[in-house]
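Give me structure tokens for this 455-residue protein.
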Amino acid sequence: MEISKQLELIDFSSLNVDYADIRVEKTDETMILYRETDLREATESPSLGAFLRVLKNGNWAFKATTELNNLQDEFKKLEARVELLPEGENLSWPKREAKHYEVMKYAEISCNKASLKEKKEFCSALIPTLMEEEMIQGPIVVYKDQYKEKWFRASDGVSYHYDYNHAGAYAAFTLKDGENRYDDSHKYFFQNVIGQKDKAIEELKKTIAKAKPFVNAPTVEAGKYRVVLDSEITGIFTHESFGHKSEADFMLGDETMKAEWEMGKKVASDILSIVDDGNWPETSGDLPVDDEGNKKEKTYLIKDGKLAGRLHSTQTAIMLDEKPTGNARAMNFQYEPIVRMTNTYIEKGEKSLDQLIAGIESGLFIEGARHGMGMSTFTIAPSKAYKIQDGKITDPVKVSVISGNVFETLNLIEEVGNDFHIASSSLGGCGKMEQFPLPVADGGPSIVVSEMTVS
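Here you go.
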């Protein structure tokens, strides 16, 4: 029986609960790994399962299952379980308009359009470019894709059916010259591998050529610098340093945090606006509707330097007397929805990157990011850095980390460029609690920060 028809057969009216919903996910996933010329992994992993929830007297009962033939019975079991619990928090589920969201847009371009053989051929085509470079040691190529179809039905009449798709690869390598070394990688993101091979090889060649000068580059002198951050590292900063602080569940029960995050409070330079928006097709943060059936809204976290919003699930919105933003997300059918980001970015300004660089007498251009972390303070490991002298990019330097206080740095942003880009990834993602990796994306334009600690 079709999944949508199975969900229609559920009789929510027979349940003595305040609210109930079910989310079904059907997923096809591929993983491929090459170490040098050795194929270490090539797996296809299909899955199908459901997550059921009931709410009564402020308490939740939920269950994940791969058995879809007796869903009504599963709901009755949850009903019996939740009735045994003492009365919980005052959670009055909001009234919503009964509505169905049908957003199927990836079936014709999905990663499933390519065979496993074609996916392996894409990966193996990158290996010669890595192996023929004498300075390269230990190259790896990792490929991952996912096509997911999701169904949802709730007792208040809200339902959805939509799909999600991404594919991509990661070619990593170490360049060595004597005792000196430099680690680098090239990331790919697309909808499927068909027609991507030649372009991917050329991009990898450019990345290797760009990396070579860093092998013997000097280490930066630690200190405070005026910096230009490119769009990729802007995105990492936005996600790690501010996005997580905007997730409303961090504020529950914390009066100090709520006071610190009062709406309208000036927290950044007037030229800065930060947004979370799932309405970016063909990104890894694409999300038309969240896992509670709330339409994903474009949410300003900062607008013209002032706190303008935060990210909510239905429950956090109830508890903070605000509106859901469509940010209740689960990694897969085995998990409950919690507050998560989608595409989080700084809105673009007016100046080109060349104009931003031209305005710097002495500083650093920071390009790309390996990883980052942060809440009140942040630490980001950049991929590349260059000196800026008299308005021009000059010599490469090795930088381990850039760091700072989040709110201080937000107020030190002097310029916002127009070279906007959202960085997506099919590998990795965002981690929160036990749910990792959740597909997200981040980005923005290049920005100028008047002072940042670099080491």
